[in-house]
Batch of 2 targets.
Target 1
Amino acid sequence: MASKRVREEEHEGGGKKVKVVEETVVVKEKKVKKDKSEKKEKKEKSKKEKKDKKDKVSTESTPQDEPSHDTESLDTEAQRKAEKKAKKAAKAAKKAAKLAAEVTVEPAAVEPTETTDLDPMASYTQPAALTALPQSEIDAYLTTNQITMTAPGTTYRPALDFAYLTLPKALRAPLSGFSKPTPIQAAAWPYLLAGRDLVGVAETGSGKTLAFGLPAVRHIQRLDAQAGKRKGVRAVVVSPTRELASQIAVQLGPLAEAAGLTVACVYGGVPKDPQIAALKRAAIVVATPGRLNDLVSDGSADLSSAAFVVLDEADRMLDKGFEQDIRKILGATGSAASRQTVMFTATWPPEVRALAASFMRDTVRVVVGDSPDGELRANTRIEQRVEVVEPRAKEGRLVELLHQLQKGAKKDDRVLVFCLYKKEAARVESTLQRRGLKVAAIHGDLGQGQREQALEAFRSGQVRILVATDVAARGLDIPAVKAVVNVTFPLTVEDYVHRIGRTGRAGLSGLAITLFTEHDKALSGALINVLRAAKQPVPEELMKFGTTVKKKEHAAYGAFYKEVDETKKATKITFD
């Protein structure tokens, strides 16, 4: 005899309730037989006890507490039958539960935190879980990570965790190696995924490539969902150097591959034909401004379908005189209204602001660092030492420093040595090799293949010392550089800050040693200001050169030219 019990379950992912029938078999016959057997046994035992007392039977008779062999066999058989029926009942219940689990439930229309691959049109919507966080927790995150955000219109909270992002499963896989977003990623992603133009001001090594790479891929997916998958370049990333362009292309590779997209890397110093062939297959192009502008001018690159443009290290590109190339490239991509434009920069000078005002709309600005106005400051995690030396003593002192920096347990530490000129870099490389040090170099007199080989040897640890000119001072992500040595001070204090920024990355501490001579005394005042701002000691020998800061001269108009912030609205003047 069996009984049925009905229960209701609410399946996860939807509000629909499903009735599940559970069948429980109750074996009453088993219970009845067992009860009768136990009563009969008790009666027989009590009769035997009375008879034994009365007749005074000897102890050789059958013990009172042992049932007879016939009773025992009957009891065992009944038990076997009962167990068999119980197994059948359990099996039936298990089968019913399995059928209930296989019931398919149509999910209700809710706002998911993870989209399916069939829903690439979903843009960013701030999830309820993020909105529910107390404002004090958000404020603490912004303060701790020194994040300042300026956003016209709709504002978003930083995505403190990857779970707050609306992404297809395929794009979550490349993120699995990271525990949580970096500050620039957390602050920028909500705005970029929502389609906003954005300027990010942050130090190199802060995760900027992924900050713009993920939104670029999502932007292309949404375009393809709207108009159907098509050929042609849909996203452009412009960077100042070949090495940085190559690095960005490698880092974007896993993201693009997960979305079924191809990345092409375009830069000068190598033949054009392979790059032109790669452009025809690419959805994302990473390029230096000079080579990309050449390809656009001769008709080899068509950027008319590009709707997502990134200017990485924008301030450095302007410093190198690429402004006209950048303007031509942006002009080839279409109007600002049909394009999402993203700019990442280490500083926020007037010329960068003017470029942003020309090509961006309703721009969001995210600054990560202790300078909300975007002024350049040295990383406070870097210990800065300045040694005033005689010009001829520099190379001898460099050898001494390298032996000290790689002594004993520190023998495997990576050290980056900066020189000002190509010839100087080649000479220092030869000097160090003659002293028995294993060293590689990158500078403008080397071919692209040689430079890439040297960088790879330094990254992999085959060589522990890399001699470089300022070509490697910006953007390159060389992990675990323990120390930077400036053999010759750069031409500007901005380049100095970017040089020493090769160490102390990803939250780690670093060391920067600068050999300063009387030839560099015109920059002593600016260097002293950087040291003081970072709360670093200022040597007395350096103070003797003076603290005056020389005013910057405009390239065309000289020292009396005044920069105007074009992003500010003009003041209306009324005459009486």
Target 2
Amino acid sequence: MNNVAVVVLGDIGRSPRMQYHALSLSKLANTKVSLIGYNESTPHQLIRENENIKIYALKPFPALSEKVRVSLLWPVLAAMKVLFQIIQLFWVLMFSVPRPLNTILVQSPPAIPTIMVLQIVARLRSIHLVIDWHNLGYTLLQLSIKKEESHPIIKFAKWSVQIIIVNQTKVFIVYSSNLIEKTFGRSAYAHLFVTEAMKNTLVKEWGLKGKTFVLHDKPAPIFKYMVEKERLEFLRHFKEKYKISKEKDVKFIDDVLSRKTVMAISSTSWTPDEDFSILLAALAEYDRMLRRKGLGDRPDLLFFITGKGPQKEYYEAKIAELNLARCHVITVWLDSEDYPKLLGCADVGVSLHRSSSGLDLPMKVVDMFGCCVPCYAVNFKCIEELVKPGFNGRVFTDSLNLSQYFFDDFIDFPSTKLTKFRDNLRSERDQNTWENEWKSVKPIFDNNATTLNDKKKR
């Protein structure tokens, strides 16, 4: 029997890539999968009903309040949290999952304490360790600290001895995280990467040991192209279900239904790592362009922004201040089954995601492409591995750049450049699947049942 453990020190239900791994592994001959992580939200139905997959739920450490995060207790509690995670992971992998365990596939980040524990377990039990690099953990820590520094409590008391001590501790933790991630992550049986840029960077700068494979994210089957009839039916249903009654909201949706208005979409968690001021400035500029004489061949623009988060009310107030005439914004929190459908109704999507490391790609763009929706994405180091300018979207640097794309690409709507981008995406849709992508890494896991344990016996 080939026993494989898939480990994610996070919510399994919100880890689509690791769920896809588990499903792909479960299809291998004589393979049983132990899926280890937090069982906070419901995993995919295919995971729950699969006889070859068993979930081992970890217990989460109690959440730390904002007051605790800026107190002298924080370093102590952070250390206790790591120790709590170490004990759980070690126990589950050493004593709970089926034996002999042949391969461990782990998501990183988080790298601490996951990779440290798994390296020890892999050596003790002669197991193949495969690291799936999604990003660099220490860069996410840096970003979270920057967010906390902008909090009113921190700003008000930034020069207090308590805050100085806590902040210096966090700086040390980021430095240590980088060192630990590099030291324990350098060596593995195999390394998987979400981008070529990440692979090249880590191979060069960390001197990785082990096989290396690039495994790009692919859209889930629920993200699919919608024909015009499905699109019209869903938008009518959307108006009723979400009780769209404001006069301007209704007018713009009706104009989308009659193909007089472009529909754009973006999803967000309304956090500081996505600067929505770029989008708002672009909408204001496009609105000004449309109000000038002689520009009647450009359509109005309805922009949906989905999601919820801490800065939502702040940006909603900013949107109201714009007093847009020929552009309009609707913010909405959707049921999970409705998001892929609303996304599929859009003519174009916009991504404002900037990678903390510059080496990973936004999953929201992958989902857009699953629906054959072109994307305008903010530029960063490796975005063109996903968004190919002039083929499936555009890459922009600032608000003026984005508004100019609106102006250039929306001319003669609905027969626009966006139609060409959508057709290009449709032509690749059947090949652009997780199953096809995963074939390249299948040999890492296939027939491992005899590989390492046989070597040990010899």
